[in-house]
Write a structure and sequence with these properties.
By secondary structure, this protein is α/β, with parallel strands linked by helices. The protein folds into 2 domains: about 5-245, 2-enoyl-CoA Hydratase, Chain A, domain 1; about 265-435 and about 470-500, 2-enoyl-CoA Hydratase, Chain A, domain 1. It contains 20 helices and 17 strands. Strands 10, 11, 12, 13, 14, 15, 16 and 17 form an 8-stranded mixed beta sheet that branches. A 7-stranded mixed beta sheet has the order 1-2-3-4-5-7-9, sandwiched between helices. Helix 4 links the parallel strand 3 and strand 4 (about 125-130). The radius of gyration is 26 Å and the shape is elongated. The N and C termini lie far apart (about 60 Å). The protein binds hexanoyl-coenzyme A. Hexanoyl-coenzyme A binds near residues 99, 101, 131, 136 and 142.
């Protein structure tokens, strides 16, 4: 064979490999409203930047008819490319090849680029569309999964790991995404569950659709397994790119800051008028966040889950920050199990990747009730304490209104190694709310009074004046200053600048024992 023939043979073979399971299956993929694995990568990466690795790998199984079903590259495409000019690794499962099922070599192929991403300190994005373990390969396929889980775990906190679910992800196949930092699900085509509707029905008798059991809305709003939901794949890729624009490539870098001319918008008078005069009246903390961050752009994470706490990324004067804020208009901003888990995971993510944390506090306390207690609010709330204490990134917090009891301590207080803690004049920092406090400490006095109602009102008012304000905390140095709300952005900018080279640490240890 001449060299020319050899070259032609390579071209032909590559062309065939690029068709994966063939034209018919590609058509069927499109009919389901899904892009193919290759189309996804081309859509995701900057033009002409994708380089493929291992296009000619084959499975080595000779059982149950697989010997007649050998396709170059097997059921996943792997490689690297550029996203907005920055290097990113990716894999994309090919549903047209045996339903994207994971063979041993597909697992090894994924593990190989995970290794490369780790060694070169770059983010990795996995596009999942698979029927799970390749049934014909049995235990070998499970070994393939095991290798991926190992790499996921070892890469955690070193490089950002992102999962896109744009097809089925069932059984153990859900655990690689679950080990990554963020899960993006495409509505209508992405589904994740440990056991499908048929198994659910046979075991529990429940009848439920695939979508209700494990669709994008379910995981975005009920389980909190996913972080983002998108209406189609292209939108999903845009969301992933936006997320990446906030992240460093690895844990030894700072997140990418940009030059930003903030001088003319440091002060925002509107911030003086958002908190209502009445302590129990709700307001939308997003309005405050948007007025503090650059270009009013806040990239919210887990928008539909545990809405009583808001988390997300933004820039302040060009510096990337993570924001945690109690949402007064959902459950009065109380901390419950889901909110604690959501916020602690986010705080730990920020800390892993050198992202300063800004906490906006308006929290009346932890959610009471048997549901919360029986399901372990103590353990879950402790996660948030743990996460804040452990975090060594710059930590700035601003108490907007209520900061009561344990919840005051949890929300990035000075006592948890907060660097700069401010309060607005509307802040009420106390062991508990005035009503609750008076009911406990003045119960007898109220009961014995000639006019209990009036007596209680007076005591509540006295308590408010004496304790429910920011000045006792300021007097003790638990907050650095009581600031004019309109100057909040200016104060954050100056604090971030001051803390830019902050160095802090935790005692040497193998790893801590966070209450999981
Ligand atoms: C081998 C598979 C496969 C699998 C699908 N296929 N899943 N081949 N192993 N796990 C093949 C099908 O036989 C079919 O081949 C082709 O892929 C397309 O599948 P369809 O069923 O026609 O597609 P669709 O109707 O869209 O249904 C998709 C599906 C369904 C919902 C994912 O295929 C399905 O239920 N698959 C099995 C899922 C599952 O139970 N997997 C094992 C989970 S246990 P042909 O040639 O007929 O077109 C597991 C353990 C992991 O994953 C543990 C890790 C620790």
């Amino acid at each position: 064979m001449s060299n020319e023939d050899k070259l032609q043979s390579l071209i032909d073979r590559r062309k065939k490999a690029e068709l994966g399971g063939g034209e018919k299956r590609i058509e069927s993929q499109h009919k389901k409203g899904k892009l193919t694995a290759r189309e996804r990568l081309l859509e995701f990466f900057d033009e002409n930047s994708f380089s493929e690795i291992d296009p000619f790998i084959n499975h080595r199984s000779r059982d149950l008819g697989l010997e007649k079903n050998i396709i170059d590259g097997d059921s996943v495409i792997t490689g690297y490319g550029k996203v907005d000019g920055r290097k990113v690794f990716a894999y994309s499962q090919d549903f047209t090849v045996l339903g994207g099922s994971l063979s041993l070599v597909a697992g090894q192929k994924i593990a190989k680029i995970m290794d490369l991403a780790l060694k070169t300190g770059c983010p990795i994005v996995g596009i999942n569309d698979s029927g799970g373990a390749r049934i014909q390969e049995g235990i070998d396929s499970l070994a393939g999964y095991g290798e991926i889980f190992e790499k996921n775990t070892l890469s955690s906190g070193v490089i950002p790991q992102i999962s896109i679910i744009s097809g089925p992800a069932a059984g153990g196949a859900t655990y690689s995404p679950a080990l990554t930092d963020f899960i993006f699900m495409v509505d209508g085509i992405g589904q994740m569950y440990i056991t499908g509707p048929d198994v659910v029905k046979s075991v529990t008798g429940e009848e439920i659709s695939h979508e209700d059991l494990g669709g994008a809305v379910t995981h975005a709003s009920k389980s909190g397994v996913s972080h983002f939901i998108s209406s189609n794949e292209k939108d999903c890729f845009e969301q992933v790119k936006t997320l990446l624009s906030f992240l460093p490539s690895n844990n030894s870098e700072k997140p990418p800051s940009i030059d930003y001319d903030y001088k003319n918008n440091e002060i925002n008078e509107q911030l003086n008028n958002i908190i209502p005069d009445e302590a129990n009246k709700p307001y939308d903390v997003l309005e405050i966040i948007e007025k503090i961050v650059d270009d009013n752009f806040f990239f919210e994470i887990q928008e539909l889950f545990a809405q009583n706490i808001i988390v997300g990324l933004a820039r302040v004067s060009g510096t990337v920050v993570g924001i945690v804020a109690n949402q007064a208009n959902k459950l009065a901003g109380m901390l419950d199990i889901d909110a604690s888990a959501k916020a602690s995971r986010f705080v730990r993510f920020c800390d892993s990747f050198n992202i300063p944390i800004i906490t906006l506090v308006d929290v009346p306390g932890f959610m009471p009730g048997t549901h919360q207690e029986y399901n372990g609010i103590i353990r879950h709330g402790a996660k948030l304490l743990y996460a804040y204490v452990e975090a060594t990134v710059p930590k700035i917090s601003i108490i907007l209104r209520k900061a009561y009891g344990g919840a005051y301590i949890v929300m990035g207080s000075k006592h948890l190694r907060g660097d700069i803690n401010y309060a607005w004049p509307s802040a009420e920092i106390a062991v508990m709310g005035p009503e609750g406090a008076v009911n406990i400490i003045s119960r007898k006095e109220i009961a014995n009074s000639e006019n209990p109602e009036a007596q209680k009102e007076e005591l509540v008012e006295n308590y408010k004046n004496q304790f429910a304000n920011p000045y006792i905390a300021a007097n003790r140095g638990y907050i650095e200053d009581v600031i004019n709300p309109s100057e909040t952005r200016k104060k954050i900018i100056s604090s971030l600048e001051m803390l830019e080279n902050k160095v802090d640490s935790i005692p040497p240890k193998k790893h801590g024992n966070i209450p999981l």
